[in-house]
């Protein structure tokens, strides 16, 4: 099994159902060349019996990109891991953290925190089937588990079957009594417990997830763990990632302006429109690009009101961009700090 590069911090955007599809990932890649991206969770049943082009297709520009799987059958997961590797994914991740009713009924996601032996068998089978890294994304634990005891035992079992990277959402999942939405905010986050896992498992790459609002917060976590994974913050305000490459990956050029990001997105949109993808399937991911800036409401309104119309094309995006640029929002973070970008 090939290990991930331990010299580079693992800065990533979390897999999020109905959010991190191929269009979102391509858009985020225009903002950061190096941040690690994840697919939505794909179940083994969907992959083995569904439309693989639709489920697994991605643009080469998305690398590094990881495939997240949902399932609990070792043989099926091994087959899917091999398929994912053959498609060119850089990492195969097993979801042991989603708290939804649907995944519980399918015996995967967070409920597997109670079955570490099964998870270990799944990971071992997946690692045997592929040479790309196999990783785990989990919660602290579930329901009434004493997570200070159960989480280290879980991670130890993952390490024993060859896992080198564990991504920990620093919140327990309550499968009884709380909805998936409530599980995003309840119970409180416990970052120190994740830090303790890094101290205990120094040879593993421990990545922290949950409630990380920006790159500054991510940088603070790196004093204690090997990586940080942003979730909703990166989706709702994607420009929060603008200085990621400079801050964590040694890039020297200034962050792109929002205008440049939009202009670089247009050819991708044209290609997909020609392939039959409706405009709104792509523009829904860029609504938050100007969040917090003058003109943001006009940007969102122009896209929301026009992208669904029959025959809508990239002119809608250009119209939205023109409306927001009138407010002067065309500068990178460095420009706003008094620096200039060469023409």
Would you kindly provide a written description of the structure presented here, covering whatever features stand out?
This protein has helices spanning 22-31, 44-49, 52-56, 74-87, 101-105, 116-129, 147-160, 191-200, 215-221, 232-236, 244-248, 258-274, 279-283, 296-306, 314-325, 333-336; strands at residues 10-13, 37-43, 65-70, 91-96, 134-139, 165-169, 205-209, 227-230. The protein has 343 residues and is α/β, with parallel strands linked by helices. It has 2 domains: 10-244, Aldolase class I (TIM Barrel); 258-325, Four Helix Bundle (Hemerythrin (Met), subunit A) (Up-down Bundle), CATH 1.20.120. Strands 1-8-7-6-5-4-3-2 form an 8-stranded parallel sheet. Helix 1 (22-31) packs antiparallel against helix 12 (258-274), helix 4 runs parallel beside helix 6 (116-129) and helix 12 (258-274) packs antiparallel against helix 15. The chain is globular.
Query: Biggest β-sheet, characterized?
Result: 8 strands, parallel
Order of neighbouring strands in the sheet with most strands = 1-8-7-6-5-4-3-2
Distance between the termini: 46 Å
Large-scale geometry: globular
CATH topology descriptor of the largest domain: TIM Barrel
Q: Let me know the CATH homologous superfamily of the largest domain.
A: Aldolase class I
Total domain units: 2
Poorly predicted runs:
1-5, 332-343
- Number of helix segments? 16
Strand content range: 5-15%
* Order of secondary-structure elements: EHEHHEHEHHEHEHEHEHHHHHHH
Radius of gyration: 20 Å
Give the number of DSSP strands: 8
Could you estimate the helical fraction of the residues in percent? 40-55%
Structural class: alpha/beta
Average pLDDT metric: 91
Q: Based on the structure given, which CATH architecture of the largest domain is correct?
A: Alpha-Beta Barrel
Instruction: Please identify the top-level CATH class of the largest domain.
Output: Alpha Beta
């Amino acid at each position: 099994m090939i290990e991930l590069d331990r010299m580079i911090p693992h800065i990533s955007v979390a897999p999020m159902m109905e959010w991190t599809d191929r269009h979102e990932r391509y858009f985020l890649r225009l903002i950061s060349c190096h941040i690690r991206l994840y697919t939505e969770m794909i179940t083994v049943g969907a992959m083995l019996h569904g439309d693989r082009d639709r489920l697994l297709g991605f643009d080469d520009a998305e690398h590094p990109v990881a495939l997240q799987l949902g399932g609990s059958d070792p043989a099926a997961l091994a087959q899917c891991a091999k398929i994912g590797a053959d498609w060119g994914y850089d990492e195969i991740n097993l979801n042991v953290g989603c708290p939804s009713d649907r995944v519980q009924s399918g015996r995967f996601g967070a409920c597997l925190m109670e079955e570490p032996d099964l998870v270990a068998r799944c990971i071992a089978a997946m690692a045997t089937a592929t040479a790309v890294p196999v990783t785990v994304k989990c919660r602290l634990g579930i329901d009434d588990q004493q997570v200070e005891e159960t989480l280290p035992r879980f991670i130890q079992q993952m390490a024993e079957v060859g896992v080198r990277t564990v991504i920990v959402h620093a919140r327990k999942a309550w499968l009884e009594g709380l909805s998936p939405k409530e599980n995003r905010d309840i119970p409180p986050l416990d970052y120190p417990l994740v830090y303790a896992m890094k101290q205990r498992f120094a040879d593993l790459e421990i990545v922290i997830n949950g409630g990380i609002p920006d790159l500054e917060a991510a940088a603070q976590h790196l004093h204690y763990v090997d990586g940080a994974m942003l979730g909703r913050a990166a989706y709702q305000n994607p420009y929060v990632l603008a200085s990621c490459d400079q801050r964590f990956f040694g890039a020297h050029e200034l962050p792109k302006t929002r205008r440049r990001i939009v202009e670089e997105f247009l050819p991708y949109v044209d290609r997909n429109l020609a392939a039959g993808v409706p405009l709104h399937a792509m523009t829904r991911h860029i609504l938050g690009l100007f969040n917090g800036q003058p003109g943001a409401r006009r940007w969102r309104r122009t896209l929301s009101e026009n992208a669904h119309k029959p025959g809508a094309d990239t002119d809608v995006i250009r119209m939205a961009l023109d409306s927001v640029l009138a407010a002067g929002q065309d500068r990178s973070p460095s420009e706003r700090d008094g620096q200039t970008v060469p023409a």
